[in-house]
Amino acid sequence: MSTQVLTYIFVGLSFAVYIGIAIWSRARSTNEFYVAGGGVHPIANGMATAADWMSAASFISMAGIIAFAGYDGSMYLMGWTGGYVLLALLLAPYLRKFGQFTVPDFIGERYYSKVARVVAVICLIVISFTYVAGQMRGVGVVFSRFLDIPINMGVIVGMGIVFFYAVLGGMKGITYTQVAQYCVLIFAYMVPAIYISILITGNPVPQLGLGAEVADGSGLTVLQKLDQTLVDLGFERYTENKKSMTDIFAITLALMVGTAGLPHVIVRFFTVPKVSDARKSAGFALIFIALLYTTAPAVGAFARINFIETVNETSYAAADDQAVTPAWVKSWEGIGLIGWIDKNRDGKIQYRAGAPFTGKPVFSGETGASGERSVSNTPTDNANEVYIDRDIMVLANPEIANLPGWVVALVAAGGIAAALSTAAGLLLVISTSISHDLLKKTLRPDISDREELWAARGAAMVAIVIAGYLGINPPGFVAQVVALAFGLAASSLFPAILMGIFHKGMNRDGAIAGMLAGLLFTVCYIVYFKSPWFGATNSAEHWLFGISPEGIGSIGMAINFVVALTVAQFTKAAPPEIRDLVDDIRMPDSAGVAHREQA
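and the corresponding structure tokens:
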């Protein structure tokens, strides 16, 4: 059976499971639509949280980043996993005890203000739409490559699947669908990692294989071989950091606090019955997440080794002057995610340090004199002849390593599961914030439960259409969409949530001013350096304090705290009942009851 047929079968079966779960678990009330009725088991919620949190960025992109960044890629591992621990220990139990449906709900009640609620909704929508654009684009890329359809059509198909189970099932449907998606994505990630670890090192445990000797008789470990090979090709050592420590620290911090401020992850802790269950589900989620995150460094290193061995110095010109590149290269070059040009016309492909083109290759579909696809970009003056988009490394890994067709098909299903699970969670928090926080709590407080449910479904439909549009027509800085989303969450929602739990003196005016200041600063900085509108030079000498746009959320967070605390000092203090509310949130249940009785 061909790989293409296997891919159709695997992806089709996974879709059938998702749709079946959506029908079985369809929401019949706003409580089920918003928080799955609050009765999800901690283990199931842990799986759903892991799937919700591990987006296409984790499944598709992270190992690719590590493969090419080496040591510097570790900041993504530290930032995202550290951020989840921060969320699980510092925020989740208290938010669950507060007992509201959404993050804007918490901010609106804690800061006794409809304006604060609306500002939080704006922050949430900006964060979520920014994040979901990358997820939908990831779905389109996977569909385009493995199902042989255009990227835009892949986005539309993904929209249809998410539309069905998100609109019909709400949080209840999404929760149990995400349990299934976690099983698919983790199996799809681990199987090729184990396969390739055995092929390269003979060790079936990828985490151990990363430090093992390469099974080629050289006596070198995986990292030693990478260091030696890359230096020989003109690159810096794989294990050497290239970025400044200031920027690494800023990016890691932004990713950590951004993770802790992501609304689609926070809302997962509202779906369990008790505060203790929130803590348990956080622990289970950390275990489930660790399976992928401890494997990613090995996947990245193995992928870089296999990439170099299958591409560098590969002959391509056949007798009939047609391209004879590795099969996996031909599979991906048609959608513009890998490209090459024979600069010295020696009939071989050289992979060296430096960019092969003045910009990202844009394929014309024609063939050059030596058989390679011609590109509209002018080659740069270096020896490198290969361009590769790092986002394809995990998806292409089984093909690069010549694994069986069923493994390739499995990875396709896993990539789609990772992107759809996060997209569904993001779209749900968007629809919930509109129907519950804007409509029910602000504009139409007398709306019935049934009307609110239909409003939530309508908002979800509109959000899916907008998300699909962003996936088909991504902004100019979509490559940095994850950094932007995390930076926005770090600079806007995280400080307001943290101070809302741990600082009784924080008032309405301070929280609103802080969120707006942090949000505006971070948006302006990233748009200035990442968008094509300003033409700003995105290099370290132009950055504020040497901090890249990926890490600027840490400065935005600091601005949020400073502005909020300053404004709070010169405005009316929070009412006594709000201070009591903060005490109640932070006290154990029995102590909280006694405190309320005394009051």
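(Above: one complete record from the training split.) Strands lie at 314-315, 338-340, 348-349, 363-367, 373-375, 386-388.
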